[in-house]
Amino acid sequence: MTINAPDYVRRIAPYQAGKPISELAREYALVESRIVKLASNENPLGMPDSAREAMLAAADDLARYPDSNGFELKAALARRYEVPAEWITLGNGSNDILELAAHALVQPGQAVVYAQHSFAVYALATQAVGARAIVVPARELGHDPDAMLAAITPDTRLVFFANPNNPTGTFVGAEAVARFIAAVPPDVVVVLDEAYNEYLRPELRFESAKWVRQHPNLIVARTFSKAYGLAGLRIGFGLAQAELTDLVNRVRQPFNVNSLAQAAAVAALGDTAFLRRSYEVNLQGLELLQRAFERMGLPYVPSHGNFVLVKVGAAAAVYEKLLRAGVIVRPVGNYGLPEWLRISVGVPQENEAFLAALEKALA
Ligand SMILES: Cc1ncc(COP(=O)(O)O)c(C=O)c1O
């Protein structure tokens, strides 16, 4: 080994993304247009037309750097969430917000708390700054807020809390989350990661942006990648009070969010019709998949996101058979769930194609 890199960097296991359609087509000599990809919790409706138009208009200005401050998008978000624009950090995906929080707040050797079976990027962001992960055992595959509280040590600087959680789809209700945040010591920052918030049923929704007003140590992270259909553009945001937002912004690349993404996000944020369709198509697809799993006698975790975790036993073999049938789903062995697969919800045709392939794979 000639290159001198920190041991904590050498120990990082790179993120395993869902298999791209083009890669499967190359490897198995399949026709791209027939492949069904339900592996990355993307929006099966594609991107909103409103966002496409906004991007076309913004394309004229691509020789210039983007607005480093994201003025228009922050103004739109400030109105939507009723917070000052100074409380908003824009990110290259909400993934960026998670990493910025770790970079701004945690020194090598200090601790970061998150739950077992929670989003893989928490481990990566922790390791990248040489911090120590405190992984709190899950309760019924979901977050256990009391155990997470008890796990906080004097040198803990950050807690990641995914709600709903990926890959399990579990959700902790408003009261329990509010109690949790209030009980976290004020010098420990909580990142409440709500990438799938827009898929929650109306009766479960709560406006966590309001909690930011009460808690100077809270960052709410949201994304345009899921219900807004803009995953390929990479845009998300964090809401936090001014002091915390200022710290996070000190470690941000000046132009971390490109101009097309900013323009598209403004349009998508105002496109309530698209958002409603995303929600409805997802709910119908989720119910279809969950009913099918019941019929097939397969255990699954009732989901609050745009994906569902199902127990198929020899998951690696089933995954492989599905690939051969042109269906890409997500194995979750790297999440400590070797018998499960995570299925992103598709449009009806995709869901049916997956279920048909699954029945064959299990026969
Ligand atoms: C829980 C959770 N948080 C954050 C993200 C990051 O999404 P993005 O960087 O596309 O905003 C994901 C993506 O799958 C996720 O599942």
Ligand inventory reads: pyridoxal-5'-phosphate
What is the CATH class name of the largest domain?
Answer: Alpha Beta
Low-confidence region ranges: none
Strand fraction equals 5-15%
CATH fold assignment of the largest domain: Aspartate Aminotransferase, domain 2
Verbal overview:
This protein is globular. It has 363 residues and is an alpha/beta fold. It has 2 domains: 7-46 and 273-362, Aspartate Aminotransferase, domain 1; 49-271, Type I PLP-dependent aspartate aminotransferase-like (Major domain) (Aspartate Aminotransferase, domain 2, 3-Layer(aba) Sandwich), CATH 3.40.640. It has helices at residues 7-10, 21-28, 49-58, 71-81, 94-105, 120-128, 145-151, 174-183, 209-214, 242-250, 259-269, 272-296, 315-324, 348-362; strands at 36-37, 88-91, 111-115, 132-136, 156-162, 189-193, 218-223, 236-239, 300-301, 307-311, 327-328, 330-331, 340-344. Helix 3 runs antiparallel to helix 11, helix 4 packs parallel to helix 11 (259-269) and helix 5 (94-105) packs across helix 10. Pyridoxal-5'-phosphate (PLP) is lined by residues 41, 93-95, 119, 162, 166, 193, 195, 223, 225, 231, 236.
